[in-house]
Write a structure and sequence with these properties.
Two copies of one chain form a homodimer.
Chain A: E1 62-68, H1 72-77, H2 82-87, E2 91-95, E3 114-118, E4 128-132, E5 138-141, E6 154-158, E7 163-168, H3 179-200, E8 203-208, H4 232-243, E9 246-248, H5 249-253, E10 280-285, E11 292-297, E12 309-313
Parallel strand pairs in A: 1-2, 7-8
Antiparallel strand pairs in A: 1-12, 2-4, 3-4, 5-6, 6-7, 8-10, 9-10, 11-12
The first copy, chain A, binds a DNA duplex (9 and 9 nucleotides) through residues 1, 4-5, 70-71, 73-74, 96, 98-99, 122-125, 171, 173-174, 210, 228, 265-270, 304-305.
Chain lengths: 317, 317
DNA sequence: CATCTGATG
DNA sequence: CATCAGATG
């Protein structure tokens, strides 16, 4: 009832590229920006410095982070951007932005980074983004296959030495209604997509792959064999991907480490009890193995039901 | 994804009566009650004592309060029940409970009061309730007219000396889609309903009538003539009701008082600026006028976008 | 349990 | 600018 003020829409202008293949460019109405975010920090007191090197002793020259942020608007309200300032990655990939391009908060941009966004046609659903210090040679959205490309799940950024692919892989859902699509269609086509890139340049693929690969990758393997993210089909899909010539960087480095998770349901205090899942990965072309320095799971960084993961690479010229 | 604990449903058992005419009694599954409300207070430091009397000098013996609480669950989370303890009314009527009978919080009951509830078929919508120290002779729900009675908008409690009717009158909506229903059907039938009661006993009707009657009853009359709650049709409906032999107790007592509102939109800081509407009323049978002591608007009681209103009556045996 | 939308006010 | 629901995770 009445007295409604004009709607304070907020919008990030001048964001680079950022069109999903399915969407046409909206005319950039210069809307009023309200609500800027205060300088809340998620990361105060945390130490993000980290010494590491390749097996042959080379120091990292690329730091790439990936984080399912579970809603970029809520995440920014919690001070999510402070993570970038503190981690200082060369690239940060985010998944589940849950925000249409035009609805991105005005202050989503970060000094010193180029940003790229892809969003689902369905409002408030899925979506991915990339922050990158270096401007990529080229950025593309989706797999180039219509049926997969209306949900903003994949962004590919090409750099001199590699393709960076970030993905938010479809969840099979409660009761697994989406399992056939996920395992028989998406997994198959995504694998082929990566293989094609891999022919011309090595690939660094990261994101929320919505699968815990092995029993070691979740706290309760026994009771979750019929749960989305740990079905035989999803696990096999990941096995099949690796078999094409890729490595799971974390498991490559730490084959025996238990309790290493990147996701904890908000329900039942799972995070405090470390009842989690490793759903977030860096998957690298095998020929990048020699350049791998480390993969760190930032389990203490809050702000989402996932935590960030960080890849350190010593890439050659 | 997984690790979901069992749902902690909460429910108030043994609530008296409380069936809408449209609903059948649910079998009282003895569900686990979780979440009880802590003793938060909305009212600390406030003084609810009040001296008043009728024109012929009689002190009040009934105190009746009415409050649109905008969601009983949110209201209880904010400590809404503390208002009852502090105001100590003989009767409290609440509107917009937005809660099905079966979903009422376990601790909705208040010591020393009988409680009665009516809810809409549509979940989380409308709904009314009554707390009463005295057990009424009889309680009925709705107007006895099917088309009006599926939204839990009216409860009638019969006492020795009067009928108490509490109402949450239909909002005409943004763009006034419901104005024809509201003014041509509801207002007409509700008036007739009250008239019928009024034949046998005096009526005290209260609630959110979703109309500001006169220009004095809202801050911005000029700009709201096409807004739900201040259209000519809705205002006329109220005029027509009074013409049948009722008084608006507040305006009866304070015909000239400006800035007396019971609702402020949450938008644009309206309450701080007192940009409000008087939408909540006590409407009394004219023959109760001589028993009227006072009508107080508790504008400082927070917890909803409406505030409580309180009626003091000196009813004769 | 927490994010969204969309209805409603 | 709040409430609630329902979808989704």
């Amino acid at each position: 009832i009445a007295e409604s003020p004009k709607k304070g829409k907020r919008k990030a202008e001048d964001t680079e590229d950022g069109e999903t293949p399915a969407k046409k460019s909206k005319s950039a109405k210069a809307e009023e920006k309200t609500k800027l975010h205060k300088a809340v920090s998620l990361t105060k007191g945390m130490d993000f410095s980290h010494d590491c090197q390749t097996k042959d002793g080379r120091k990292p020259n690329w730091k790439i982070a990936s984080w399912n942020i579970n809603g970029i608007r809520a995440w920014m309200d919690k001070g999510g951007l402070s993570y970038i300032a503190d981690e200082k990655p060369d690239i940060l990939c985010v998944q589940e932005t849950k925000c249409a391009q035009e609805e991105l908060p005005a202050d989503v941009k970060v000094d010193g980074y180029h940003d790229y966004w892809s969003s689902a046609e369905q409002a408030g659903y899925a979506g991915t983004g990339i922050y990158s210090k270096t401007k990529p040679i080229n950025v593309t959205y989706g797999l180039g296959i219509k049926k997969h490309d209306s949900e903003g799940r994949v962004i590919t950024a090409e750099y001199d030495q590699f393709f960076l692919v970030t993905a938010y892989v479809p969840n099979s859902g409660h009761g697994l209604p989406q399992l056939p699509y996920r395992s028989k269609e998406w997994d198959v086509d995504f694998r082929e997509y990566l293989n094609n890139l891999n022919k011309s340049k090595p690939v660094i693929m990261c994101g929320d792959l919505n699968v815990a690969h092995l029993e070691i990758d979740l706290a309760n393997p026994k009771t979750n064999k019929k749960t989305a993210g740990f079905t035989a089909e999803e696990r096999q899909g990941f096995t099949d991907l690796l078999a094409e010539g890729y490595i799971d960087s974390y498991r490559e480095l730490y084959p025996e480490t238990e309790g290493a998770y990147s996701f904890w349901t908000y329900m039942g205090n799972a995070r405090a009890k470390n009842v989690g899942w490793r759903l977030d990965y860096f998957v690298l072309s095998e020929r990048l193995k020699e350049d791998l320095c480390d993969n760190v799971i930032r389990k203490d960084v809050m702000g989402s039901d996932h935590c960030p993961i960080v890849l350190y690479m010593a890439l050659k010229e």
